[in-house]
Model the fold of this input.
Amino acid sequence: MSFSEDLTAEVKKIFKDQWSTRDGSVVPESKDLGLGNEAVKLKATVLYADLTASTNLVDSYKPYFAAEIYKAYLHGAAKIIRSEGGSITAYDGDRVMAVYIGDLKNTSAARTALKINYAVKNIINPALKAQYPNETYQVQQTVGIDTSELWVARTGIRGSNDLVWVGRAANYAAKLCTLPAQFASRITADVYSVLHQSLKFTDGKSMWEKVNWTAMENKEIYRSTWWWPL
Done:
């Protein structure tokens, strides 16, 4: 069988085979799923944390400087995600994806976003300025969060594969974190509606501003510049 014939047969098999699904209670790993049409269904909240303007960073600065920015931001975000019970599912260049499950998944994810904002403003940027006092660059970033049912499947080929997270939450969270960095945290209305009150208001002031997401048929989302101390 030629390479083309083999590939054609494999693609036809993917479309033809029936799916085997099961409900999940934990965030799966690659070893928990086969490469066939097998999926775990989860009710989960997805967070994406993304370093803003990384293309300009790598184009305009020395490689060591850009690498230090990447490392500092992703290290801080990852530590905060883990501390809030999130499972890190992927690193993609200048951003990290995390999944939260359980009764408090939305509150935990939103608090993660506010804590990452705190870390950038009060830990990462001050450390950057102390090391490079003549440098004007400041880290900017955005976090996007949504919640929905997800299908988790294993994709790729034998010896080179990973999990793919299929569902609205993964897609929307990834898109939200590409919006302008003037607001470091953005969540969907579904996330906001179930947040603990401590994540909605402080001293009687709302921590979130409701706006319409014009690029997505004016869907209601919430954005914030607030932070949560570590």
